[in-house]
Amino acid sequence: MRIIRIVFLWPVVMLAACAPALKEAPPQIGEIQVPSPLVRGNPAVTPVSKLDMHEWWSIFDDPQLNKLLEIGIRDNPGLAEAKARIGEAQAQIVMAGAKQLPHLDTADDMTRMHRSDNGDHAIYNGKTYTVANINPLMLSYRIDLFGQEQENVDMAQAGTEAARASYKESQLLLRAAIIKTYFALKTAGWMLNKQDEVIHLAEAGHAVMRAAYRAGLESSSRAIAQNASIAGEKAKLSALRQRQQALHFALAALLGKGPDYDAEINAIAPGLPPTLPVPENLGLDTLSQRPDIERALWQVKYFLHAEISAQKAFYPNINLRALIGLNSIGLNSLLSTGSATYAIGPAVSLPIFDGGTLKGRFAANAAAYEASIYAYNQAVFTAARQVATGLADMDNTRQMLADKEEALSQMQAYARVAAAEYRAGLNDQSAEIGATTKLNQAEMSLMETRLQWLAAMTDLATSLGGEFQGVADVR
């Protein structure tokens, strides 16, 4: 008996020894730091030791924007698709977990057959008869000795968390796109109105110049140049109108609406928050709250479990099987007590030769695990770069705003002086019109920079993880 056990167990031990070892994984980034001067020496941001960025966009104090964000999160089909992926991943957990449980089935069959006269079926040679089997209870249970099925469950759970992180990332990016498109659309409407004023001023200047030309005070060349200038300003108006329409369609699509949707965006210049609150310490703990970093980390865990599962596929499987039923030749005696049958016992399967399938699967999962670590490291580097770039952009844009505001202040003074000189008869009307035109152009230039400020603020908040930064993950 002892020899039989050794003969039986020896192939199991040998085959288990043939399982490949897990490969040494490349190192994951353990720490990274955005330079502190970008935060502490930056007047565009306000460092906060413990920052909760939930609904960070409330700093814009714009009820219409808040409403549009609610519509987009509710109706955008791309976001709904990402949410459906979570349900798909959760179903994989159920499927993987089901393999750890006993399976109970039923099987019934009835066969009418005729045996040949020259067969080896003894008394049944040359006979025609019916064979019936009723097996109402067939139990099978795989004993997960080496934990492969548990690895599959853990892998499915990691996949679900990765899908949930992808959904959060889709939320984050959609919200940023709606905010930036909304402000760009408001700005485009304001710029259209201002460009109309510039054209009216150019036409008024042209009328003054034509009067001076008829009086012999101006040459025809200046009148022609003024005509060309008006045409150029009208071309700018057409470009602004085209931009406004494109932004309108883009916003409608982000909200999950058709091109005919009217969000009724007013053309009032958007407000300008003075600073953006940011976490005081911008290390890996802060960056890891970004959904893309979270997703990359769950992908690492997913492929680690996949590699371990592929390794354990080299080990033998033991299945316990049992059945209770009825078996009879002929239907007359099928339901009698003598037709009762049962069976119970283990079944051992050993992977001996599969043409390299197991080795190929293991190698593929090992490579995928290694690639996922590199992808995670790259995601961390990208996040740190985006945050650093966002902080620098905020600082530079704030300085640009200050310079543009100073230029506008000087242009306002110039326009006031030109108007006073015209009223005092010290200069003609064309000088006043020219000064007012330059004032409008300075206002438009400042408005473009204000839009850059809003976009830079949105980009920085998004790069920090947006509404998920400093917020507990409550499901």
UniProtKB/TrEMBL annotation:
Q: Which GO terms describe its cellular component?
A: plasma membrane
The organism sits in which domain of life? Bacteria
Primary location:
membrane
- Give the range the annotation lists for the signal sequence: 1-19
Q: Which Gene3D superfamilies match?
A: Outer membrane efflux proteins (OEP) (2.20.200.10)
Q: Where in the cell is it found?
A: Cell membrane; Membrane
Which keywords are on file for this protein?
Lipoprotein, Membrane, Palmitate, Signal, Transmembrane, Transmembrane beta strand
Any one GO molecular function term:
efflux transmembrane transporter activity
Q: How does it sit in the membrane?
A: Lipid-anchor
Specify whether Signal is a keyword of the entry.
yes
Per the record, the similarity remark reads: Belongs to the outer membrane factor (OMF) (TC 1.B.17) family.
Concerning PANTHER family, the annotation shows: MULTIDRUG RESISTANCE OUTER MEMBRANE PROTEIN MDTP-RELATED, OUTER MEMBRANE CATION EFFLUX PROTEIN
What protein name is recorded for this chain? RND transporter
